[in-house]
Design brief:
The protein contains 6 helices and 16 strands. Helices cover 17% and strands 32% of the residues. The protein binds flavin-adenine dinucleotide and FE2/S2 (inorganic) cluster.
Length: 283
């Protein structure tokens, strides 16, 4: 787990980016500790606020500038409140949280696959891979053009960028997974990093592992505490010993080896899971 800082962050800017908001916060202590894949939680709603904090991937962290950036999609009460934030507002922030994307020491060729705002944590990762002498390709998908995030930023990092939308309003028409095998082959990628909806992560894992590539997935399981106490965020994962257990996506993740996640069993208590008997599951 990361070593999070609990504190107040000042909103420096809040700009529209398609249907999303890119929010920059001054949080110098937290910024210095962030690695790609970490997330942050915010208390929202002021003094009469919402009980639970809300989780967001950290899009960018600049240790020198002391800033942390988030990309926010409006979902419910908390995010509706957050996108109203103005420069000068102060928010209660805990960051960084979770486990970052694993990056090997040597150079690799990696395909980064995103659904919608799932691209947010992948740009810092791409820069890290390139710093280590590797190369990256981006596969950015969304339902519509306005739900894509960061196409220009990806193009600034590499010429290997493929855009896919379900309605065909930008790039190829279809699912982000449709051209995945071709994109993997084009850059001879041996590792895939993915962030987006669960169904997409499952499909990405199946394709990547079927083609012999490792697949690191950043999941967005609903979280209550964000710090490993409540067990709200568990999902079934096969351990290195071959035993399946519920693991917490806030502290053991949100980044998991996709091949170890039991995607089809998420939301259930599989009977062969360690401790399932005590949870009332019958074999
Ligand atoms: C690791 C991670 C990274 C994320 N990154 C981003 C991001 O970069 N950008 C972005 O826009 N969104 C991101 N999200 C999703 C974001 O957290 C939700 O959209 C946000 O919590 C919605 O809050 P709301 O008040 O608007 O919606 P509401 O639906 O009103 O409230 C959601 C709240 O209910 C809780 N909740 C929902 N379902 C359950 C459940 N089954 N059990 C317990 N509690 C539950 C949630 O934990 C949250 O606190 C991320 C989520 C996670 C877990
Ligand atoms: S959200 Fe509470 S343990 Fe993960």
């Amino acid at each position: 787990m990361a070593h999070p800082v609990v504190g107040e962050a000042e909103v420096l800017s809040n700009e529209r980016a398609g249907v999303y908001h890119r929010i920059v916060l001054a949080a110098p202590e937290a910024a210095a500790r962030v690695r790609a894949g970490h997330f942050a939680t915010l208390a929202l709603g002021g003094e009469s606020g919402l009980l639970l904090r809300r989780a967001f991937s950290i899009h960018r962290a600049d240790a020198e500038a002391g800033t942390v950036e988030l990309v926010v999609a409006v979902h419910g009460a908390g995010t509706r409140e957050l996108v109203k934030a103005r420069p000068g507002d102060r928010l209660s922030l805990i960051a960084p949280l979770g486990t970052p994307f694993p990056v090997g020491e040597g150079p690799v060729s990696a395909l980064l696959v995103a659904g919608g705002y799932g691209s947010a944590p992948l740009f810092a990762l791409a820069e890290e891979i390139r710093r280590r002498g590797g190369q990256v390709g981006f596969l950015l998908g969304a339902s519509t053009a306005e739900r894509l995030y960061g196409v220009e930023a990806a193009q600034a990092l590499t010429q290997d960028v493929l855009v896919v939308t379900e309605d065909g309003s930008a790039g190829l028409k279809g699912l982000v997974t449709d051209p995945m095998a071709q994109a993997l082959g084009a850059i001879e990628a041996t590792v895939v990093y993915a962030c987006g909806p669960m169904g997409m992560l499952r499909a990405v894992t199946e394709i990547a592992t079927g083609l012999g590539a490792r697949c690191h997935t950043a999941v967005e399981e609903a979280m209550a505490c964000g710090v490993g106490i409540c067990m709200t965020c568990v999902l079934p994962v096969v351990g290195e010993d071959g035993v399946s257990r519920f693991v917490r996506s806030c502290t053991d993740g949100p980044v998991f080896d996709g091949a170890r996640v039991r995607w089809a069993d998420i939301g259930t208590v599989p009977p062969d899971l360690e401790g399932a008997g005590a949870m009332g599951a019958s074999a």
